[in-house]
Amino acid sequence: MNKTQRYISCGVMLAAMAYSAAAAHDKHGGYSAGEPGDPKKPAREIVVSMNEMDYSPAVIEVKRGEQIRFVIRNAGTEAHEFLLATTAENLKHGEAMKKNPDMEHDEPNGLRLAAKKSGEILWKFSKAGTFEYSCLIPTHRELGMTGKIIVK
Question: What is the reported pLDDT for 77?
């Protein structure tokens, strides 16, 4: 492979990674589970603890239109993620993560936390339905690291 072919190959790979990172967006440019929250508006706080291969709580109920400040704490001994989307989107993104396990998430609906670290996601649930949060680090989701959000 010559130098030009390597650059093209790298460009194609970067484009595929960018597409995978944006998989939680729907066809209208939004997110399937709602939208990033407004820090100037009130929010209900929900603490989510990530452990070795589960979340607590595992099921969360919210009202459509409600804004939630997720305080996410990694109580585990290794890095974990919280990625909010549909199950189908997380499964698709999980396949991309198997090829790029160190993929960084720079999206308002997800974060990766090192062991014993905390972070926050501010989210407005503007759409009714059932969504999930899961850890897409290879094997974590398969070992049960998923949670469900029911928006009524």
Answer: 95
